[in-house]
Amino acid sequence: MNLAFRTIRRAACASVAAVALISVPAIATAAPTARSAGTERHSAIPTAPVPSGFKASAMTWTSATHGWVLGAKSCGLKANCATSQVIGTTDGGASWHLVGTINAQIPKLGLGGTGITEIRFGTSKVGWAFAPGLFRTSDGGKTWKAMTITGGGKQVLDLAVTSKGVYLIASPCGYMAGICNKGPLTAWRRILNGGTWTRMAMPRPLHVNVSADVAAYGSTVYVINPPLKLATQFYASTDGGAHFSARRNPCPAITEHTLIQAAPYSAVKAGFLCDGNPGFSKAVKSVYLSANTGRTFTYAGTMSPWGIQAQLTVSPSGNLAVDAYSDGSFIDINVSHGTTWHQVIGSGDGGAGFNDITYVSNNVAWVVYGPASMFADYGLLYKTTDAGRHWARARF
Predict the structure, then answer these.
(1) The whole model's pTM is what?
(2) pLDDT by residue for the chain (396 residues), tens digit each?
C-alpha cells in the first residue's frame, strides 16, 4: 500500500471549514475486501490514550482493521517537535491509542531540520519510519531504533514493505539540499524481519533526483524515477527485487505528463499516476491501469485539473481515488471502472494538502488532511465508507 510521491510542499493557511464535501450519484461497487500487507494474527495495541493535541502526518494499514498513524503533539506552527509519536487502531479506527514514541522530529516545511515524515508497516510487528531518516520497530511500534541508511545514503526518498520484504530508494544528497554530484540514487532490499541490505540492480543506474517511487505487492516491485535532466526510468521486478526489467512509460509526452507513482493492488495489477503540464494551481493528471505488471496499459481517464502534487490509491476491486493539492486541496474518484472521474472534495484552503490516501477495502479509505509536516499543521484524518463519494472527519 505504498503511497509516497513527495515533492516540496506549498504554503497553507486557511480554515478546516473550507473543505467542501460534494456528493456524486450512487454507483454500484463490489463487496469490501480487506487489503493486507501481512497475513499473520495481529496482537493488541496498548490502550494508552492518544496525546492531547496530536497532529497526524502519515499513516499505514496492514488490513481494514489494523492501522498506525505517525504524528506529533502540537508545538505550534513555527517549531518542530523534538519527538514524534505513533498511534494505532485494531478496530478500523473506531478507537485509537498511543503505541510508542520515536526520538525524531517531523520537520515542517520551511523550518529545516531532519527526521521522519512517513511510516509503513509490513506486519503487526515490523514497521519503518522514514524520509529523510530511517527508523525500525519490531514490536508493533512500541520502541523504535535509528538505522544507518545503507550504501552511504544521506536520505531515504521512498520505502515500501510487504509481509516478507522491505525496499527503499536512497539518495547521496542531503535532505533539502537539492541535487548533488555525489552519484546516482540507489535501490535496496532486505528481508522484513532482519538480515543485510542487498543493492537491487536496475537495467540502468538511477539518475540522481529529489524524488522517486518504490511500490511492492507480494513479489512484485516497481521503481519509478521521474525525469530531471534525463528521461523517466520505470522498472519492474516479479521476483522480489532480484531482477528488474524496463517498462514503457504510459504517460503521453505530448501533454508533458510525468510518471510519478505505481499503486499495485495485486501481484499483477497496478495503477499508474501521470502528472504534468502544470499551470497556476492545476496540472493534467491521468491514470493508467495494467493487469500484467506494467507490460501493457488501459487508460482510466483524466481527472479535474485542480491540484499539482498528487497521490493515487486503488481498491482491491479497482476503485480509484487521487488526492491533490496546490493552492487548494482536492480529491477525485473513479468508481465506474471506466474513464469518468468526479471531484468529491474541493477546498480553497491555501494548500493544506493531503497525504497517504489509502483504500483499506473496496468501500473504506483514509487520508491525512493538513499533515503535520506542512504549514497548516491541521493533522486530521478523514474517512470514507462509500468508496470515496463522501468523506467525514475521523476522531482520534
Answers:
(1) 0.88
(2) 333 333 333 333 333 333 333 333 222 222 333 444 544 444 444 479 999 999 999 999 999 999 999 999 877 777 788 999 999 999 999 999 999 999 999 998 877 789 999 999 999 999 999 999 999 999 999 999 999 999 999 999 999 999 999 999 999 999 988 899 899 999 999 999 989 999 999 999 999 999 999 999 999 999 999 998 889 999 999 999 999 999 999 998 877 889 999 999 999 999 999 999 998 899 999 999 999 999 999 999 999 999 999 999 999 999 999 999 999 999 999 999 999 999 999 999 999 999 999 999 999 999 999 999 998 889 999 999 999 999 999 999
Residue corresponding to grid cell 503535520: 372
